[in-house]
Amino acid sequence: MKILQLVPAMEQGGVERGVVEVNRAIVAAGWSNVVVSNGGRLVAEILKDGSSHITVDVKSKNPLTFFSRARKLRRVLKAEKPDVVCVHSRVPAWLFIWAGRSLNIKWISFAHGANSVSLYSKVMTYGNIVVTPSRYIADYLKDNYGLSEEKIRVIPRAIEKRKFDIDNLDHEFIREKRREWAVDGSFVVMGLGRITQLKGYDILIRAVARLPDRFKLVIVGEAEKLRQDVERSLRELARNLGVEKRVVFAGNQSKVAECLSIADVVVSSNVRKPEAFGRSMAEALAMGKPVVAKAFGGALDVVRSGIDGLLVAADGSKPYEDDFSQAIEEVSKMKFSSLREDALERFDFEKMLDRSISVYKELAGNGE
After folding, report:
1. Separation CA 213–CA 29 (nearest Å)
2. Biggest CA-to-CA distance, the chain
3. Which of 94, 117, 185, 306 has most Cβ atoms within 10 angstroms of its Cβ?
4. Of all residues in the chain, what percent carry a pLDDT higher than 90?
5. How many Cβ atoms sit within 10 Å of the Cβ of residue 227?
6. DSSP H stretches of helix in 184-311
């Protein structure tokens, strides 16, 4: 069987890392997997694991180049002849619909988020099967687009135990980063993920600014080239609040487990648009780190308040940073046990892979 994955880019992020992990499993199953994207640093991992990558701009939203890019994608589809196409975002979905016309290729739309309700977003319900990472996203699509339950397959994202093995960490990397970030003696608050307005890092910086000096924030992630203004504004905010020395912009890091091992608490400060699942939250738990997040969306599938960390029942009646700072301080005084063991059981990687492969087989009508 041949699977073709359409991803905007393979640069950074939970969706992209998930494509890398599933790619590895597809190859291990003896199938072919082709990733089509606009490129990025994670392409090297796709190639290393034995798959191929084809560069097509399936990321740009420029309508003037839509048809030329769709024609290029059509040529790829005709040459590769995939059994199943997996589409991971809206732009690739629209391009595929045009490029795949008359080719009769079955496809799966992976609805990774609760996008704004519109005809443009509705395209993520058009696949023969729709895979969602949480019950929250499944219900969101049903409520807003009338998507039938029969088309939905909920497959929670998972944790690759090998990558989050606390007994096999790069301790020299950890020592180097602790020195570079100057966190020894601090209570380390960590935000993990690319820098965008959606992530709410401005709220997190304000929350840490309300806490005693022993609390230090490390933001692991970077802004894309077109979003550099967001990172500049966050740096300026830290300066204006007088906490520039307590906020570390760590940039993109490939060794996520090692970074998480340095944290004392991981915070998902997104309050605007619910996370579809919250991969970084699950990974934090796998490293034995409690999580603070707003009680909505995918966080409800990951964090059990008082057991895995704290959920902030913020309703916007007061500044969100007040709720987050209070929750972070409370967590710093709490004791947690079995975070790792519980997370690995709840978000088992092999179970996720088995369910993903079963969906490919189901759609292809192929048990091989």
Report:
1. 51
2. 63
3. 94
4. 72
5. 14
6. 201-209, 228-240, 256-262, 279-286, 299-302
